User: Which sequence fits this backbone?
């Protein structure tokens, strides 16, 4: 029998999750409190899957679409589901209210993963009677094109359900990362933030332009990082592996760390200048098109990685 | 008439540079003080170019090889060259000695770019009589597969020659980044270092395994960064562009920055543990094969980017 999952909140993230589960063979029931959002979901998913069929990313788009249905109520969506992916608006009050409503309908063994990108589950599930069944399952947007998912348990999350959630994510073709305990920004945004903070500092201090800083990543660092993580990269970058690399290069990296004795914050002045630089290469009314361009490139990169055994 | 460049120092970096210039149509004269290194160069380049022909990266491998010759002396290598790429061993005494020898042979207008990844040109060119003609041109290894080159002038580098060097790098298909003044680690290694320092801190504190931290990059952050830099990424990640993104998310990133009030240094204990984790997935005697695997994937990714207009 086909297993069922519920998607609660059907914006771009929730809709992406619907594709992820449906293409893996799950029945997907989508609920969004706003009727307009619910109405848009099917169209968006059909359009997105047509694109994917053209790229060769799915070969049974119609079947995938058939597995997705819109539920009239939260109760209908959750009925018989083994897993709930919640992707509602990211504020503590909204997340708390939805967690409470889901909590009231939970059966034993059901897992609730929240797409929260920054708020830990402990901030919105504390008073739930089934709080052991909640955790964060944070994807990167769009989840059907970028496979990583951070699993972040609250202190009260059942470790067995966390482990089960990891298995489920692997089964549907995502790449789960277990964050052993809660921390601001989890792993992914902390790594992104560390790089961004340094990028803003270098830009503010006039070392290079926005475009040149971008190029050091898009034509340099990012190439290796698109199929190897930072640790594997340095493990391969010294004859004797990671310890050898650390011996040779940690003095430089320590010097860099020590040179920033004050945390560098993003200044309004730098943001204003960067905005001007970006608008010269991409006007504000071209942002939406460039986002479609990005998603098209991500889809093609995803195919490329699959064909080259880099997934 | 075909222009000529000189490559001084023919290890992996120098040999990669020889390919970069030769495939762009330049006559390349390679000099290495060690006769064994000189002897190996031709074989290595032939082998590398055969691989590239198979991948479709070059279609005239024999012509490219024909453009590369081994010089018997530094003088022979530099004779008539418009540009010198120096890639000798990276210590101040070695770089200083080679800079001095090159200096004695320089004609007006010739530019000398050093592949130095960390030592700024001011540390090894101060006493050169033609020091205005020297700068750092730091590639990422291997330069024929990763196009970024950081151009870092010393305080005395002639700005006109810096600009000319940038044009030359664009002409040969590299992606130059201008670092306006010297700073430890330049741009690329500072960005890499910021991310690595946070990765080590998270690992040391037990938040996630080496493999999971790697996965957040190789299956998450790194996908976008392989064709967009960090600024373009955030510019596209909020409806109103980069200023809108900063308004929404800088508080989170500031919190992350402030949470590391002490610079996090790489601890010996963490390095030892990470080494163990890495050796479980990749044994020490498999490192060399994995490096070939990486270069093969980089070559394929380079083709993919070219075909998808992402270069």
Assistant:
């Amino acid at each position: 029998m086909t297993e069922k999952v519920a998607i609660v909140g059907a914006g771009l993230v929730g809709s992406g999750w619907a594709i992820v589960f449906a293409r893996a063979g799950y029945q997907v029931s989508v609920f969004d409190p706003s009727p307009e959002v619910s109405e848009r979901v099917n169209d968006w998913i059909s359009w997105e899957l047509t694109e994917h069929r053209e790229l060769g990313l799915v070969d049974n788009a119609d079947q995938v679409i058939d597995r997705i249905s819109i539920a009239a109520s939260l109760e209908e969506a959750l009925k018989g589901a083994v897993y709930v992916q919640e992707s509602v608006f990211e504020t503590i009050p909204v997340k708390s209210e939805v967690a409470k409503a889901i909590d009231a309908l939970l059966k034993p063994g059901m897992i609730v993963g929240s797409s929260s990108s920054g708020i830990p589950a402990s901030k919105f599930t504390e008073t739930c009677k089934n709080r052991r069944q909640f955790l964060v399952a944070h994807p990167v947007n769009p989840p059907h094109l970028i496979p990583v998912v951070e699993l972040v348990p609250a202190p009260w999350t059942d470790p067995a359900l966390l482990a089960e959630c990891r298995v489920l994510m692997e089964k549907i073709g995502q790449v789960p990362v277990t964050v052993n305990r809660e921390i601001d920004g989890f792993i992914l945004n902390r790594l992104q933030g560390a790089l961004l903070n340094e990028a803003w500092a270098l830009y503010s201090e006039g070392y290079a332009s926005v475009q040149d800083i971008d190029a050091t990543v898009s034509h340099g660092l990012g190439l290796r990082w698109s199929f190897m993580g930072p640790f594997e990269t340095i493990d391969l970058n010294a004859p004797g592996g990671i310890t050898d690399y650390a011996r040779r290069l940690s003095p430089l990296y320590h010097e860099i760390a020590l040179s920033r004795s004050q945390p560098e914050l993003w200044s309004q002045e730098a943001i204003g200048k960067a905005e001007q630089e970006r608008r010269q290469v991409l006007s504000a009314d071209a942002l939406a098109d460039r986002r479609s361009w990005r998603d098209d490139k991500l889809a093609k990169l995803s195919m490329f990685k699959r064909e080259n055994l880099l997934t």
Summary: Chain B has a mean pLDDT of 94. The CA atoms of residues 138 and 207 of chain B lie 34 Å apart.
